């Protein structure tokens, strides 16, 4: 089945120790998104790639970076995780339509714990 | 930017009853309105969506209505079952590659 896969599902890191989360998709979608979701809150967009074009949200901290080496893969790098970065990180994909909204498909998420 | 408000924040119903969740949006340019269901520890799953050129869409026990003039849309779940218990998010988008703006979520509890 075509899907969005995230690895690992659970990640524990230490304060200040860099961590990388990965996302892959078999949907061949041209847009990939990274969201941060804290407990009992809505997902908050960090950034997205439209093909190779990177788009950062204005309020995304510099501590968060992303790479998309090819259509199928996208990575979220947290350079120096703080306690406030503990959250669920969700990857989503869509096929952007010229007009009208694009359906977004979410992966299962990676739960990040910062000790 | 877009702002989406969602009510209620929690909703408890008896099995078999109907549940209604309401959202309002601020940007009249928004034209795509999906609803997601999120179970504990999982990613959001799309359950139904509606585009601005229609007023209502139905899929078995779930339906969504859209009032563009009033800028609000609602999710209706009939004959609720315990497995409907989850957090439901509404969202709005202006289309293309633009990201979704989510509502704050509604925790639905269906009592057996």
Primary descriptors:
heterodimer; A: 115 residues; mainly beta; seven-stranded mixed sheet; globular; B: 112 residues; six-stranded mixed sheet; five-stranded antiparallel sheet; 11 strands; 0% helix; 54% strand
Descriptive account of the structure:
The complex is a heterodimer of chains A (115) and B (112). With 115 residues, chain A is mainly beta. In chain A, 0% of the residues lie in helices and 50% in strands. Chain A has strands spanning 4-7, 10-13, 19-25, 31-37, 44-50, 53-56, 64-67, 73-78, 87-94, 105-106, 110-114. Chain B is mainly β and 112 residues long. Helices cover 0% and strands 54% of the residues of chain B. In chain B, strands 2, 4, 5, 9, 10 and 11 form a six-stranded mixed β-sheet that branches. The chains are: A mainly beta (115), B mainly beta (112). The A-B interface holds A 4, 6, 31, 33, 40-43, 45, 48, 50, 90, 94, 96-109, 111 and B 31-34, 36, 41-46, 49, 51, 89, 93-100, 102-105.
Q: Can you give the helix content of chain A as a percent range?
A: under 10%
Low-confidence stretches of chain A: none
Question: What can be said about the biggest beta sheet of chain A?
Answer: 7 strands, mixed
Question: What is the largest interface, and how many residues per chain?
Answer: A-B, 28 and 26 residues
**Mean pLDDT metric of chain B:** 93
Write the SSE topology.
The complex is a heterodimer of chains A (115) and B (112).
Chain A (H helix, E strand, L loop, with lengths): L3 E4 L2 E4 L5 E7 L5 E7 L6 E7 L2 E4 L7 E4 L5 E6 L8 E8 L10 E2 L3 E5 L1
Parallel strand pairs in A: 2-11
Antiparallel strand pairs in A: 1-3, 3-8, 4-5, 4-9, 5-6, 7-8, 9-10, 9-11
Chain B lengths: L3 E4 L2 E5 L4 E7 L6 E7 L6 E7 L4 E4 L2 E6 L4 E6 L8 E7 L8 E2 L3 E6 L1
Parallel strand pairs in B: 2-11
Antiparallel strand pairs in B: 1-3, 3-8, 4-5, 4-9, 6-7, 7-8, 9-10, 9-11
